[in-house]
Each structure stands twice: as C-alpha cells, then as structure tokens.
Design a protein that fits this description.
Helix content is about 80%, strand content about 0%. Helix 2 runs antiparallel to helix 3. The protein contains three helices and no strands. It is elongated. By secondary structure, the chain is mainly alpha-helical.
Length: about 60
C-alpha cells in the first residue's frame, strides 16, 4: 500500500482535472460546490505531487 501513496498526488490532480472537464461539458458550471471541490482536488494534488517528488530527490 505504501508504494501507491507516492502516486496519490498525481492521481488527485488528474481526478480534479477530469471533474472540471466533465462539469464543463455537462453544463454544471453553475454549481459552486462541484467546481470548488474539483479545483481543491487540483490544488491538493499538485502540492502532494511536488512534496513527494522533493521527498525522494537526493538534492
């Protein structure tokens, strides 16, 4: 299970982008909760992705 934690940031980032694309194509742009949740997934995913890359770096 620990080997999959490393990829969780990128997975959350992709999930957030897919939610934003799905919401835009489906016309759910007037729902703020959906849009904010998708945007939060993108931000948290990007932060986690950078954190895990810096954690495994030797520099």
């Amino acid at each position: 299970m620990k080997k999959y934690i490393h990829h969780s940031g990128f997975t959350l980032l992709c999930l957030g982008v897919l939610m934003l694309l799905l919401g835009y194509t489906s016309g759910w742009t007037d729902n703020n909760a959906f849009t904010i949740t998708a945007a939060a997934l993108v931000v948290v995913g990007a932060v986690l992705h950078v954190y895990f890359i810096k954690k495994e770096s030797k520099y």
